[in-house]
Design goal:
Blueprint: E1 12-14, E2 21-24, E3 27-30, E4 37-40, E5 45-48, E6 51-54, E7 60-62, E8 65-67, H1 69-76, E9 82-83, H2 95-101, H3 108-116, H4 129-139
Parallel strand pairs: 1-4, 2-5, 3-6, 4-7, 6-9
Antiparallel strand pairs: 7-8
Length: about 150
Amino acid sequence: MEGRDRLGDGPPALGTPSQWVRVQNNRFLQPTGGTVFEYGTAAPLTVSGNRYYSSTGAAFRLNGNDIAFSQWTSSTGETGATFSPITFPDPDRTVATYMSSLGMTPSLDAFMTEAKKQSKNNWRTQFTAKVVGNYFRAGFGIAPLP
């Protein structure tokens, strides 16, 4: 995000990438407004199946110009894209809420204390990255990792 001076903007694709830029099947969400995607490079762009939302009408920036969703799809040729609010089952999950779900003290410090106790003789899967990550994934409606 080099050279950015606006807070709340989505990911920019700027500079001179050496190959095609492909962005597909992602979610870009700016519920309090802002640019959801900026493209300002001569490298070819392939976009498809993305979900976007911003409370800002001209939520895209293409080659320095703020444009609306309809202009974005016609200019980029994106297919299968949608522009509407995105809801998640429980997006406000934190380490504290995870600890609470385990019936433990709901804080990051308490989690770190427990995680530091991990050892070969005291292995608890609820303090592994996979299990904790799956807790957060579920909050965004994403399937757990196997």
